[in-house]
Write a structure and sequence with these properties.
Helix content: 10-25%
Strand content: 35-45%
Number of domains: 1
Largest sheet: 13 strands, antiparallel
Distance between the termini: 19 Å
Length: 302
């Protein structure tokens, strides 16, 4: 058991940012591509029960978006391959966050992945041969074939920050919440501001039809902006893993970011991969051979 633990520790600790083999449809309709990351379209994030912000408070950050492209080994984003019929790849997730800092005037806050995660914390990536995701309704993001699943990585470095825009009198700038095409929220306004977030997830499942390379972790970075100018604000979120119906309805009050208790953001994210070093497989294999050697020696002595 001790040797097994050493082998697994060696495998876990020898990782690097790298490329993976990825087949976007998991079928012969698309080729397997070498990619360094996945680019997500502008989507939605919801900080559930985050307001009023206080240091040490935890909240659940729900997220959903469609995949807009693949990042090649040169760092350039390329469109998803088109096999002839439209399809979608979508991302959903929920992470427990903790507030680290709030400025005296409440205009700046920082947060990170909480050391204790909710039982419903998760990340999932889905393929669907039919385009059904709807940003405004907040539906269709967790339907289809599961490509990838993970859990928030607590030990990995994480950070988030959000800063309010203020007028000359020091008051938050208030604007219409939904400024994308049509205002679908005529009775809701929002504070104005921007920020960013960085976090990681440990991979717990990778579908071999899609993911062709051993994969240990994914690392996200995202912008966080209000008001919404590039996508519709979602009316529902998925706060649980699996393919169940969206179970979270944002509770924003009259002014998003002030009245709460929830705070909804326009989020634009991408993620990259951490893969095991080739040598780590040899080390792990040696560790497993050691396990077999100890077991054989013990049997001989008996």
């Amino acid at each position: 058991m001790a040797l097994w633990a050493v082998a697994m520790l060696s495998l876990a600790s020898t990782v690097r940012a790298g490329t993976i083999g990825f087949n976007p449809t998991g079928t012969n309709a698309t080729p397997t591509l070498t990619i360094g990351g996945i680019d997500l379209a502008v989507g939605n994030a919801l900080a559930v029960n985050a307001l009023p912000l206080t240091v040490g408070e935890t909240f659940q950050l729900d997220y959903q978006a469609t995949v807009s492209g693949l990042i090649n080994p040169n760092g350039l984003t390329t469109p998803l391959p088109t096999p002839g019929t439209p399809y979608q790849i979508t991302a959903v997730g929920s992470f427990t966050e903790i507030v680290d800092f709030v400025s005296a005037d409440k205009s700046v806050a920082t947060f990170r992945v909480a050391p204790t995660q909710s039982s419903n914390s998760f990340f999932e990536l889905y393929y669907n041969p039919t385009v059904i995701a709807n940003n405004l309704a907040g539906t269709g993001f967790n339907q289809g074939t599961l490509i990838l699943a993970g859990k928030p990585s607590v030990p990995t470095a994480s950070v988030g920050v959000y800063s309010l825009s203020k007028d000359s009198a020091g008051n938050p700038v208030i604007q219409a919440f939904d400024q994308f095409v049509n205002n679908d929220y005529p009775n809701t306004n929002t504070v104005s501001g921007s920020g960013s977030s960085m976090l990681s997830a440990d991979v717990t499942f990778a579908n071999p039809d899609f993911i062709k390379t051993p994969l240990q972790q994914i690392t996200f970075n995202s912008s966080l902006v209000t008001p919404f100018g590039s996508v519709d604000p979602s009316g529902r979120f998925t706060g649980l893993p699996g393919t169940g119906a969206p179970n979270v309805t944002p509770n924003l009050g009259a002014i998003n970011g002030l009245s709460g208790p929830d705070f909804q953001f326009q989020a634009d994210a991408n993620f990259s991969f951490l893969v095991p070093e080739p040598a780590s497989f040899i080390q792990a294999g040696l560790g497993l051979l050691g396990v077999l050697g100890v077991a054989v020696a013990a049997r001989v002595r008996r």
